[in-house]
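Continuing from the previous page...

OK, I double-checked the sequence for Lipoprotein against my notes and this is the correct one:
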Amino acid sequence: MPRPPLFAAALLPLLATLAACNTAAPQASAPQPASSYAGLAPGVSPAGFHLPSGSGCAADVARWKALQDNDLNSGHVNQKVYDQIQGEIAQASSACAAGRSAEASAMVRASRARHGYPQG
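Thanks. Re-ran it with the corrected sequence; updated structure tokens here:
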């Protein structure tokens, strides 16, 4: 028995939505799971925490992001400050990806200084 056209029309948007949910999107690096911080005193990083290595603007951006993720989870920064710094990191990352390495690294240094972090 054929299904009414209304059923098919209602099903298409649902299928399109489900297909969109299953597409692979680039994954942003996430903060280290909060569970690894469970039981630690505030301000303490979990054992095994390491900043990314490397050189150039991509490494500068990756280290600043990892430091902020750690600082959020360990209680060094609150969510509002973290979100502000993430916006600054995104701008530096875009500049780096566009080939403006010196500008991107300078943006990371400026963000660190603006938020009271020593240059690293």
